[in-house]
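RETRY 2/3 - previous attempt timed out on the joint model. Re-submitting the same 388-residue input unchanged.
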Amino acid sequence: MSNQTKDKILETATRLFYFQGFHGTGLNQIISESGSPKGSLYHYFPEGKEQLAEEAIVLSKRRIGAVIQHYMNEFVDVGAALNAHILAMADLFDVENGLEEHSYTMMPFGLLAAESAFMNERLRKVCGDTYKYWESIYYTKLIANGFSDEAAVTLSKAVSAMIEGAVTLSLSQRSNEPLLNISKVIPALLAQYK
Amino acid sequence: MSNQTKDKILETATRLFYFQGFHGTGLNQIISESGSPKGSLYHYFPEGKEQLAEEAIVLSKRRIGAVIQHYMNEFVDVGAALNAHILAMADLFDVENGLEEHSYTMMPFGLLAAESAFMNERLRKVCGDTYKYWESIYYTKLIANGFSDEAAVTLSKAVSAMIEGAVTLSLSQRSNEPLLNISKVIPALLAQYK
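RETRY 2/3 succeeded.
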């Protein structure tokens, strides 16, 4: 058994958790879709589904964090950077062709966050910390753009809430309009605090 | 078997779906917590869990819609109305005492929306329509406050996304700070469009 096996199990679990949620995904499906023997799963993830979910959340924290950081680095202006980030998410909602499997790195973190909110304190905490981490990336960029500490705190949290909500609405309405809409609204909001 | 039995089953199912999600809630738990015989459940909800979920979503659509409308009626100014609505939600997040069971009428709709997004097209549609209905209440109030049609469309969708995201973040971080934060941000946003 190699690290490749571990990675494959974790990738499969992460994808399934995003599309089906924690409760909607069974260990047997993870085993069969990853093509790994049951023994490997318990070897690498002795705590089973909860451990897999925690590692999936941490993986998403890093990956989505890297995507956010990429857009923050690409533009000097925080408005332009947020715009590019949100439009990239909107592009993934291709209604005609359905969501591509590769796009799950941008999927709604909200499903795992909402599922764990009352049901699993350990996962709830990891999800809560993940949102704070993403907010810290927006915060740092706002500070670099000359916003005051108070404005950067307020705006980074508001941007985080807007994006999270817009992703959920876009998925639920099968339309990227909610995401496109907040990409229009955020520059107006930033202007108010500059 | 009376309508009271039907209502009791639906209330129990709605509460459980909010706290545990669709996949995390089994019919047996609904039956046992509602104190109703299995036969009643299938008598009133012949399609089982899917039908219960659909009726729970429609119930929430009306109830939460009535709460939103209540705040829109209470204040002439749309900013004041939204503020009161969001602060009332923030009040429900009493970290010390935990969420009260009666407060589930304000719970995150996002869990059912996210769960159904890929897994159940029928429920996905009902959730998507629910968000549009709530947005229409904000829209009407914005128009009554003299906002242009274009501004009212943009703002009603943005408010909807912000509230949805802030509720998810508040639950996930066990803090009403994300909700309190958007209550500060929305007046600034409205000012930009007036």
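Chain A has nine helices and no strands. Closing ticket.
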